Amino acid sequence: MGQINFGKLAIKPSKPFAFGKLSKAWFCGLPGNPVSAVLTFYQLAQPLLAKLAGQSGWNLLPSITARALTPLKKTPGRLDFQRGVFGSNAQGELEVSTTSHQGSHVFSSYNQGNCFIVLERERGSVAVGERVKIKPFNALLRS
Question: Is the pLDDT of residue 22 over 60?
Fold first, then answer.
C-alpha cells in the first residue's frame, strides 16, 4: 500500500516515529507518548509540512548557547531534547534549567518550559555551569 522511508531515529524522546508515503500522500507516524509525539511533530513533521506548503523561508528558531543552572542527566548515544526554562541573569548572560522530570509521559514539561535543551548525541551528563545549546519554542509550543 505504501512504503516507510525511515522509522528509527537516534533522538530522545521520539520512539516510534515513521515517515513514508501512501500512494501519493506523505505521512508521519507519531509516537504514542505525548512528549515524544509533540517533539517529533515539532522537530520533524512541522518543517516537512512547511516545505510541502511551499514556505521556503520558514525555519525553526535557531540554537543559542546558555549556561546550565541545573545538572542534566544523559547517556551518550542519542540526540536528546530535554525541556527547559531559559532566561538571562543580571549580567545579561543566558541561563537554562531543566523543567524537572523528563519522562516521555510527563507533558507538563512543555507547559513549564520555553525551550528545548539540545544535548548532542555523543555528550553525557551536564554539570552546573557547563554551556549547552537551547532552541527556544516557537509559537506552536508557547502558551
Answer: yes
